[in-house]
Amino acid sequence: MNIIKTQNYEEMSKRAADIIAAQIILKSNSVLGLATGSSPEGLYSELIKKFNSNEISFKNIQTFNLDEYKGLAPDHDQSYRFFMNEHLFNHVDILPENTYIPDGLKSDADSECSKYENLIDSVGGIDIQLLGLGLNGHVGFNEPDTSFVLNTHCVELTASTLEANSRFFDNDIKKMPHYAYTMGIGTIMKAKKILLIVSGSKKAEILYKSLTGPITPQVPASILQLHKDVVVVADEAALKYFN
Ligand code: GLP
Predict the structure, then answer these.
(1) What is the pTM of this model?
(2) Ligand 1, residues 12, 38, 39: which to mutate, most atoms within 8 A of Cβ?
(3) Which residues, 6+ apart, have CB-to-CB distance to 163 below 8 Å?
(4) What is the SS3 assignment for 54?
(5) Under 8 Å CB-to-CB from 22, ≥6 apart: which residues?
(6) 39-69, pLDDT tens digit by residue?
């Protein structure tokens, strides 16, 4: 595991964008696994800058997002489809039909999830998977559990995640979806390379636990210790427990 320490969020975003850009330059038809949340916003802005200065093109890129809230329409301003359009897709030359996100409106969870998993396999798998880290150690929406769930599946969000994400829903848990579709731990681990970005002291303890503690489904990100190609780009505050 390669850990890159940056001074702050801005530098983390730049370094992580360099890694994604390098992937795109090396393989112009890469399959990117993407994430939402506050962590990747800066990275996406940096990628847009690189696109605008002709360093990279998304013309032949395909993307698969980690997760989506169940029950939110793509045009709901808190859906992850909306987030991706706003923060990246609308600003670069990616073909909309090459961007995949689970469909939150499909009520048949099993069929939507297995369709998504098969689609990822059918394009040859993900070249680089971007991940943020939840306060409880979740990746995507893989919440702490008694076992690792392998494939794309429907998950009930935990109280910790509902509370953390309620800031986007007028701080009202009642206004939020309580279920989501997410790539599974196996889906994530199948990616050829993983890029984990973490910022801020609030994440320091869970980051330390994830990377140095026991590998357990109670800390979903701890499974990353077993992946052969993980790059962590994190700022000083998030890495404060590392020497
Ligand atoms: C959300 C998402 C995750 C994200 C995480 C951290 O619930 N499902 O994919 O990585 O929480 O979010 P943030 O980057 O805003 O701290």
Answers:
(1) 0.97
(2) 39
(3) 173
(4) coil
(5) none
(6) 999 999 999 999 999 999 999 999 999 999 9
